[in-house]
From TrEMBL:
Keyword field: Isomerase
Protein name: Beta-phosphoglucomutase
Protein EC: 5.4.2.6
Keyword Isomerase among UniProt keywords: yes
GO molecular function: beta-phosphoglucomutase activity
InterPro entries: B-phosphoglucomutase_hydrolase, Beta-PGM, HAD-like_sf, HAD-like_SPP, HAD-SF_hydro_IA, HAD_sf, PGP-like_dom2
Length: 217
């Protein structure tokens, strides 16, 4: 019995939201826009381009295309400088345990992330080899909540979408999984992720028996 297990990266495998936040905050400040933690929440799962568009919208600012491109580059440069310091201590609790359990059960595993920095991050935290497929921001043309990223992952694993299970921390990601006809498992707060089929605050709350049920359903 094989299912496809698809993991979002930021906020599910590693807590990079804090680095995205710092980089966006500094960037917003450089163009006199205030950027709050609450706004950062709304950027979870949202692509780099869309994120900057939203920040400009919140700040009531219009800029030239050139400045837009340059700001995107600046943000990523700073984000990459944070990423450079990452190691496997930044893997979220029990993520490795779940990945190893799935591998022991011979279940196909894919990444399904909006990030264009997914590979270097997985390399930094030493998890790249756990994945049978990596689908990230470089492979998609439509951002979550569009299901494209997860449908490509299912194809890469050669598993039907209805036999796939998605782990997501963002509302947009949960919606994408639901639209793809996959089982959605929210990692985070129940109130925020109420559209998910199941919600766990983190992987320490997830028993192996639950994963076994998913495999055998
Ligand atoms: C994830 C994060 C977002 C981020 C996006 C793009 O979805 O949750 O906050 O904007 O990836 O990441 P990137 O590394 O390509 O800038
Ligand atoms: Mg995420």
């Amino acid at each position: 019995n094989k299912k496809g297990f698809i993991f979002d990266l930021d906020g599910v495998i590693v807590d990079t939201a804090k680095y995205h936040f710092l980089a966006w905050k500094n960037l917003a400040k450089s163009i006199d826009i205030d950027f709050t933690k609450e706004q950062n929440e709304q950027l979870k799962g949202v692509s780099r381009v869309k994120s900057l568009e939203k920040i400009l919208e919140w700040g009531n600012k219009t800029i030239s295309e050139e400045q837009f491109t340059s700001l995107m580059g600046k943000k990523n440069e700073e984000y990459l400088s944070f990423i450079a310091t990452m190691d496997d201590n930044e893997i979220l609790p029990d993520v490795s345990k779940v990945l190893n359990y799935l591998i022991a059960q011979k279940q196909p595993i894919s990444l399904g992330s909006a990030s264009k920095n997914a590979r270097p991050i997985l390399e930094k935290v030493n998890l790249l080899s756990k994945f049978d497929a990596i689908v990230d921001g470089n492979d998609v043309s439509k951002a979550k909540p569009d299901p494209e990223v997860f449908l490509i992952a299912a194809k890469a694993l050669n598993i039907k979408p209805e036999d796939c299970i998605v782990f997501e921390d963002s509302v947009a990601g949960v919606q994408a999984a639901n639209t793809a006809n996959m089982i959605s498992i929210g990692i985070g707060e129940k109130e925020v992720l109420h559209e998910a089929d199941y919600v766990f605050s983190d992987f320490t709350e997830m028993e192996n028996s639950f994963i076994e049920e998913l495999i055998n359903r």
